[in-house]
Each structure stands twice: as C-alpha cells, then as structure tokens.
Amino acid sequence: MTAQSASGRTPPAVRVEAVADALYRLLPAHVRQVDLVSGGALRALFGVLALPSAEVDAETDAFYDALFVETAGESALPAIASLVGATPLRPMPEGSSLGQRAYLANTVRYRRGKGTARVLEALAGDVTGLSAVVVEHFQRLSRLSHLVDVRPDRPGTATLVDGETASRAGSAFDMLPRLLDVRPVGRTRPGRPAGRHGITAVGIHVVRPVVPHFPAPVPGPASATVPPEAMSGVPVARPWVVGGTAHPGYFQVAPQPGAALRLFSPDRRADAAGGRLQARDVADRLQRLPLHRETDELRRAALEERPARLPARRWFDDRGQPFTVFLRPATETAFLRVPPAQVRIANLEKPPATPGARPAATLEYAWFDPGPTAPVPRTGTHAIACAVDPVTGRIIVAEPASGSSEVVEVRVAYGTGLGRAIGAGPQDRGDADQPFEIRDSGATTDLVWVVDPTQPIAGSAETGSRTVPSLAAALAEAAAQGAARRSFVLLARCDLEGATGAIEVTLPAESEIHLVAAEWRAPKPVPGVPADAALRGFIIRRDRRFTVDAPLRVARGSGAATAQAGRLVLDGLELTQGLRLKAGSVRALDLRYVTLRSPGECALRATGALSPVQISVDSSICGPIRLGTATIQGSGKLDIRDSVITADGAKGDAIAAPGLDCALCNVTVLGPSAMRALTATNTIFSEPVAVTRRQAGCVRYSFVPAGSATPRAFRCQPALALADATAAKGAPLTPDEAATLRLSVQPVLMDYSTDEPTLAMLHPLCPDAVRTGGEGGCEMGAFARAASGIATANLASLVDDFLPVALKAGVIDDTRSAAVAARRNLP
Length: 827
What we know:
Shape: globular
Helix content: 10-25%
Distance between the termini: 71 Å
Low-confidence stretches: 1-11
Mean pLDDT: 88
Strand content: 25-35%
Number of helices: 14
Oligomer: single chain
C-alpha cells in the first residue's frame, strides 16, 4: 500500500516507519508487549495510521525547503523567480548539470551591481556553467589625434608585439588597439557579419570545453617525495617512441601510442574571489610562452635571492595546477615531486634533431647585482628535472647526474578539455544505477578483486576483497571462480597494462564481470555506531582511468552449452588496441565512459557469431564498430548514447551492424554506417547511413546526409530545410538551389581527429539548424546534454537587464580548434 502527497511525491518508507514507531511507543509498555506476543496486529495498524502523518510531515518539510533557493525543489523555483523578478530561462535537457538555481540565488546581488563587467561575468558563469570573460570593447579602441587627416598611403604603423600578445589576438585577453567597428556585436543574420570593437559593444567571451582534472596528491611534510600508494590517482606516462625507438627519458602523457594530448588549465574562477577573471582562471588550452615566463622567473628569483616578480595568482599554484610532474628513479620506490622551477617548457611538436637528445640537468643564468661603483656580473646554475611541452603532453627527463640512476617511471597530474565529460577520465561516473555498496546478500555473494601492484597479495574475493598485482591475474581468478556470479575487478590505480599478446577475458556462462577503474574503500568503524556486518565496501568511480595497452579478447568460459553467455561491463577504461568478441562470448556488453580505439583498424569487432547480444555504449569515444560481416552473422541490439563513433583512420564503415537493431541518442557518427534497423534522436551522421529494414524505426531531430537510406524521418536536416524552402517557393527547387540549401545546414565541427580535445564539437559557424535543431532546442550530436546553445541563448536573453542604456552585448565563442590553436602556440 502506498500513498502520494499533493506534490506527487511518495513518502519515504523510512519516514513512515519512524512515525509509526513514535506513535507505537506512546502506548503503555504492557500493551505493546501483549501485542508483540500475539503477532503485532496493533503495530501493523499504527503502520497504516502513520501514512497520513508522514504525508503531513513531508508537505511541511517541502514548505520549509521552498523558502530557500538552496533547498527548494525544482517545482518551487519558478515561485522564487517571480519573487525576485528574475527572467525565466529555457529549460535545459534532461541529464544536464545546469539549472537556474545559482542564477536565482544571485539575482538580487547582480541587480545591485548592474552595469559592471564583474557582474556580467558572474551572471554568465551561473547561467552557462562556462568560463566567461567580459570585455568592454571601447577600452580596446585606438584613439589618434590626427583622425581628421587620414593618409591613405600610410594607413597604420606596424605594432611590435611578443608571442604571448600575438597568441591572445581575437580572444578575451586581446590587448591590441583596434579601429572602430560599427557593426553590431554578437551573432547576426546570415550575410551580416558580426562586429566587435564598437563604442557600445560589450563582448561576453565563453570557452565551451569542460576540463576534468586528475588531482595531484596533497603535499605532506616531505613534499618533495610521494609514496607510491599516494599516486594511485595520478596517471602514468607511457614511453614516447620516436621513429620506432624508445629513447631513455622520453615520455608522453597521452595513453594512445605516439599521440599528442593537449593540456588544459582547470577552471579556477573561484580563485578570483569576486574579482575580474584572468587568463589563468579560464578553463582553456595551456600555451608555452606564459608558462615558460613564469618558470624562468622562478629560477631567476631563486638564484638572485629575491622575491619572484609574478602576479598574486600564478599559473602554478600550491594545489599542483595546472599540472604536476612526478619522477621515480630506478633505485627508488617513492616519487619525486618536480617543483615548477625545475620544469623547462619546450616545444616538442617534433623530436629533437639529435636522436635521443635530452636537456642538461642544470641551466646557467647570468645577471648583474648592484655594486658600489658599477654593476657586478654574476652567474649561477639552477637544477632542471625535465622538459615539458603542455601543447603536446610530451616530456623529456633531464640527463641524470653522475652517479644518479635513470628515471624509469613518470606520472603527471593534469587536465584536458572535452566538449562534455565522456570517455575515460577523472570525472565522477557514480550514477544511481551503478553498484556503489557491495553487500553480502545471503544468496550468491559478489566477488571483488582490487588490482593494485603497490599492495601485497592478500584477502578473499568472496568474503571481502582480494588484492592482486595485475589485471591478468584478476581475470584468471574471476574466470575460475566467477561462474553464475557477479565479479568486480576494480582497477585502483591510473596504470597502464600491456602484454606481448592479447589479454584474455574468459567470461563464464550466466555470469557478470565488471572491469571498473575505481577506488575501493572498506567500511570504517564509527565509535558508538553498530557495525553493518553485511557491508563489505564501496566502489568510488572517480579520479581513475586505467589503460589496456594490448588487444582485449573476450571468450566464453565454463558452463553448460545451453546456458546463456555472460555479461561484460567496461567502465572508465582506455583501450589502445581494440576489443574482440569471440563467437558466443557475451550476452551483453556495456561500455561506460570508455575510450575504445585501435587507430587505423577496427576498435570493436565480433570475430564470431553473437546471437542474441545486447551491446550498450554510453558516454564513450569509440573507433569503428564491426559486429557482423557476410560470413559472420549476429542478432540483437546496439544501443549508443551520448558518444562519438569515429572511423579513426580505418577504411570502411564507422558502424557496421548488418544483423543488429540500432538505437542512437545524442551521438555523432564520423563515417559511413550500415545496420539492420535504426531508431535515432539528436544524431549527426557525417556520411551516408544505410538501413536494411526501413519499415520500422524512426530518425528524429538528426542530420542525415544525402544518399542515406533510413526509416521515416521527423524534423531531420537537410530534409526539413528543403521542405520549408519548397513550401515557401511554391514550386520544386532547382538542383543548384537544393545543393546550396544542403550546404547551408551542413554541420560544421571543430575537429575530426580523435586525438583532439575539440573532437566532434560544433563550430561557432555551425548553422542554427544543427545548433538548435535537436529535441527540445538542444544541439544535435554527442554533446546535446551540454546544451551550450540553450545556455548561451539564455544568457543573451538576460544581458540587456544588466547593461546600462545604449550598450549592447554579444556572446562570443573563444573555443579554439586544433588549427587555430597551432597558430597561437608559437613559439
């Protein structure tokens, strides 16, 4: 029996039980004793009588919660918005982390500071969740005394600027003087370019990528050294192989072999403490020159025995941001934390001209000290631990000093940008539908293995948790003991595991194996609180990413021939050489926050028939998926959500599932596709898609290129634009008109390379038909839940209320593609 409150909520069972117990205790003790002996009928009656009281309590609590914006439910927020006169915002899509709570909480404060750039920055941050910098462009205009005497033969004077000033050109921190631009600021109609540098123009510059960050260990009393057990959340750097040779001291942060990884500064807006944002506060790509200047000044200040001439908020802070390098020599078990002054910023786009060349362990400086009659020349040397390129994520360790051992392991705490937190990374992956508490149920007990090579082999997988040194060891034990059970293999460190051959996952029939990059925490006793004997521990799914640097092959394990195959779950893993499914190996395969690649080849392939199979890809970056050929037949369903599927340099289809029914939601497919049946929403197909069974299914709010064969479509581009244009013209379009219209609604993406952080993000020049053409007005593609289009539209609708008369504001997207960033990262 259940009851619902007027607001539609069901009172929690715990609340009902608490009220029933409170009422029951009001009875005399002898009455309660007789009732319990006779079966507890009176206690059951009080359980029924407690329902109305629990309803009243729930409504009372909801009423008090609705008085404060911090505790009010979503249904109560419109009433608070009316109370403070806040402009209503367009709702964000389900699953978005943005809402209007922060905007409503600060509305009154923003109105008090109306008209100031600081308030606009804070407002933009609350509404969009993005780093936003406000620029009053009249301050950037050049003012010359001879404007009435313009000489056409000499229109201007060359400006000598350094690399950092040039790299900021066009961004929010562009300090170059400009001439007057009378065009309106912000986006305008097609054919009417937007202006920027006007007297009344205010630019709100936003950067869209989010930056999940691997945190550095908190410095302890001996901050120079860190024990290995404290480095579990810091990713290991793999060798940087140059020309087929692995030189000593050469490392790369990117987990994919030979790839570059663009380091980003984390979002440090909180450090501004209500002041104006600076470049180091914005979550954006790191550049070489600002970091070089800061590290060089730190070295000079140490040698010259003076305070460093740096701003209060530096690029490198005490929390290890924006990145921290840790080195472990061969003769040591602990890691050495490299201070910023010992990091030499270098350009490592290309390897050194001399193969295997490395920076010296010291760097010499010369300077002058004041003297009694003349400056006194001085020289000194500062220690250098390594050279780091933040643009490529490559590291070269300095030559070891005489008698010192070689560095054999490098770990780096860093952050990189993404359109949304997808793929393997440090983001929180603890959704409500994922196992968190591991308990003894009394029936079939779950098995738990913790992969941690820094800890001794110990424990029991059945009664608590068993610690093993490698993934291969955990998989071997799970295959032997996991029949008809659920097994968790927790990869507790951000490590990389490879093998000379493939790593085999033997999946017993009617069983489950979860490979999860996560921390395992055993329950801690709390004084005065009875211990929960059934509770074994917790799975913490954040700050972890495990890399499998070998082909991962899945095979069917022990079990009856008639028994169903097992289920395999990969969560938070990065695979560099793909995943192979043998015949009948899995009944279900779930990929959550996984980066699955095998550049130039197929990433996910079925090497034998899978029938039936349920494959789910959620919030992942995946290379080509091939789940059937002319000789290998399969059946089942392929469900892809909030993901990017890319050809990744391989020939053929990005998705080849001729025997599977596919359901795609919020997906960007960079390559041709072929499948049996299709249901798609908010999906961008960059190349034609061929569906065999078109009588069923539907494609909604998606981009489907010409030459595709799909089931019925609803509000898809370019078909929708063609139909509207034909209706407006009243006659069929000519071939040239149709071709021009198709180009006008073509998706424009920032990058197509899987190694780039702006992969599959919509370009600022992307037409509104794609940017706002998704369901509910969100964008099409993998980042629909980010809803940057809705967020910026909400911001644009509010700024007039917070601007002085006659000023106009425009939202300017400062997100940089790989091509633009390459030009700005020189030298």
